[in-house]
């Protein structure tokens, strides 16, 4: 009876299988369902947490104004410290973006299928969502002219663009984003660069030229810190100041701050992992194709988007029975029979293929 | 240019001094400004974190549906598991409460002065805030008849009531909250029980009889886990289901979940600390009075609200120069010359008094 109108009609952001947390021996799990890093973060993170556990103050609120952290993030991103603010994950940042920049009944446009959290947060706050759809029968390819026509028609207040896109893996070029930002200067372009480390394409250097570009980043992917909840925004000083006005200053835990700082001190570790994933992805795609499994070619993140055919639900279940987890997308409009598989190390993907083969044999019998 | 109307006119939630985080040798600090626990959490927390650091998966997202944790919270609170949901702090819960139950342009009533975060979140989401003021010249005493008249006039959608109230320390009785909930059955009573461990007054047992009671709790006070960001809601199953629809399921970090579970396994530790603080508070109030410092008598939390007189800003500065931190309230309407001092152990408060005396001597010279 007390729920407000937006909550009553909300279609929530749904998360996938929870089974991994109920499995006792977690070392037997191959977790390829949430696009996390498949290896631990830099050893410096563990070292920093152990030190904090001995000498830190768990009973104190976290630092509410960690400028050392902002400076390191700014250095990593190649922007000024006034262009950066950190949040408790990019999901948390999505909430603050809507609350800072959108009014109820404003419209936003999403390039779909895409990461669903932004849509859910927007709708929960009464913001209307429109979708510019990438189509399976066109290989989810992107046509900028069609998008620009759509923006002119919908006249959204903001556009959410995940680059590279999750789950389709395709990437928008810097030139395309510049063209969009120049043409539609009153539209806020929210560029989610959650996976940017895997293709290196970023528009971070444009935020002081284009006040209508706002970038979301996370430490949950290449940095291997999904458990910690840490992300950050890059935008014009004015936009960042607006976000800081709305942000709860106590919202980022002390251990998340400490872990992020430690991870930023070992970028070589991240770059090595990214290179391993890139190599692994090339081999993995080729191996899938050998098995006559259709893979989207434009896979710029640490994942592949795959057409597993009619048996995909059965295959996923059989994999889960072997403690192997991948992500089903068949319930998403325009993604029939599609699954998304996180790409880890070469060794991990070979293990995945071995288990997959043992399952596929039964289907072919 | 891109900020929305609510953000443009927002008066943000301001946090106090950040100086402690810049002090190198933190063991010399007496932090009595944020009502944190003044001692570390149970040793079981450290043990659990060390174990997680060795065997856990930092690279995985946190458990998005931790029912073991819900069950333990339900057991601690004396309610059913369907009456409980956990959040990344009670501040985080405030955000989800507004988003789940309030519409833009709804009005809420706050009993003021009070903890300011709820006001800031409400206003940032376009909710109108009205204040029922407790007055300094009446010792911030509470008159339920006057509040009920005010509710009838304002007709708020919700009322925010911090019990015991921060910073005034006064407590609302269970009978008073029942009377309010019965009389105004269409008003949602948001009862913030952040400090309830220190006076033992709760309305948790009423949530299945009164669907208009929603309780906020935190692990940042008696449980000594402010750095972690962990809190929870207690309400009717229907209200909890509504909050779960809006809540981001990944928002509570793995280490916060693990720490909360460990802390709940050592309630004796929390109860011992609470008893120590209660004894310490009696002695501390008496010592302040010996020094002719006016203290509000009804101090039901782990803090006292004190009239430090005209020199209060100078005294606070002098204390800070000795690495002692207390909270200035003089800038808050109706709290001229008031300061709030967190009460810690007997030994810590004696140290505070020794340092205070060394400062006051200079003023009396």
Automatic annotation (TrEMBL), chains A, B:
One of its GO terms (molecular function) is pyridoxal phosphate binding. Residues 29-354 form the Aminotransferase class I/classII large domain. Signal peptide: none annotated. It holds the Pfam family Aminotran_1_2. Gene3D superfamilies: Aspartate Aminotransferase, domain 1, Type I PLP-dependent aspartate aminotransferase-like (Major domain). Its cofactor is pyridoxal 5'-phosphate. Keywords: Aminotransferase, Pyridoxal phosphate, Transferase. InterPro entries: Aminotrans_II_pyridoxalP_BS (IPR001917), Aminotransferase_I/II_large (IPR004839), HistidinolP_aminotransfase (IPR050106), PyrdxlP-dep_Trfase (IPR015424), PyrdxlP-dep_Trfase_major (IPR015421), PyrdxlP-dep_Trfase_small (IPR015422). It comes from the Bacteria. Belongs to the class-II pyridoxal-phosphate-dependent aminotransferase family. Histidinol-phosphate aminotransferase subfamily. This is Aminotransferase. It comes from Photobacterium phosphoreum.
């Amino acid at each position: 009876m007390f729920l407000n109108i937006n909550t009553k009609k909300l279609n929530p952001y749904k998360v996938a299988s929870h089974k991994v947390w109920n499995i006792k021996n977690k070392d037997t799990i191959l977790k390829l369902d949430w696009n996390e890093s498949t290896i631990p973060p830099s050893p410096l993170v563990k070292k920093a947490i152990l030190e904090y556990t001995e000498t830190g103050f768990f009973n104190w609120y976290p630092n509410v104004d960690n400028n050392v952290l902002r400076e390191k993030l700014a250095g990593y991103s190649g922007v000024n410290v006034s262009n950066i603010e950190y949040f408790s994950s990019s999901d948390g940042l999505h909430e603050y973006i809507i609350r800072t920049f959108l009014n109820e009944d404003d419209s936003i446009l999403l390039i779909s299928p895409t990461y669903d959290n932004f849509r859910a947060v927007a709708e929960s706050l009464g913001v209307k969502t429109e979708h510019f759809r990438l189509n399976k029968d066109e290989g989810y390819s992107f046509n900028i002219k069609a998008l620009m026509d759509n923006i002119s028609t919908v006249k959204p207040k903001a556009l959410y663009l995940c680059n590279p896109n999750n789950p389709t893996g395709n990437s928008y070029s810097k030139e395309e984003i510049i063209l969009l930002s120049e043409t539609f200067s009153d539209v806020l372009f929210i560029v989610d660069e959650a996976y940017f480390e895997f293709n290196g394409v970023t528009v971070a250097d444009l935020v002081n030229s284009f006040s209508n570009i706002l970038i979301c980043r996370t430490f949950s992917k290449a940095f291997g810190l999904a458990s910690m909840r840490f992300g950050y925004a890059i935008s014009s000083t004015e936009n960042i100041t607006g976000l800081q006005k709305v942000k709860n200053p106590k919202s980022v835990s002390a251990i998340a701050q400490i872990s992020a700082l430690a991870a930023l001190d070992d970028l070589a570790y991240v770059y090595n992992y990214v290179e391993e994933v890139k190599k692994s992805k090339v081999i993995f795609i080729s191996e899938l194709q050998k098995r006559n499994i259709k893979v989207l070619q434009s896979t710029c993140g640490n994942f592949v988007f795959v057409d597993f055919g009619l048996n995909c639900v059965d295959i996923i279940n059989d994999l889960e029975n072997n403690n192997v987890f991948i992500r089903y997308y068949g319930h998403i409009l325009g993604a029939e029979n599609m699954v998304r598989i996180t790409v880890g190390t070469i060794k991990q993907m070979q293990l995945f293929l071995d288990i997959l083969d043992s399952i596929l044999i039964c289907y072919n019998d």
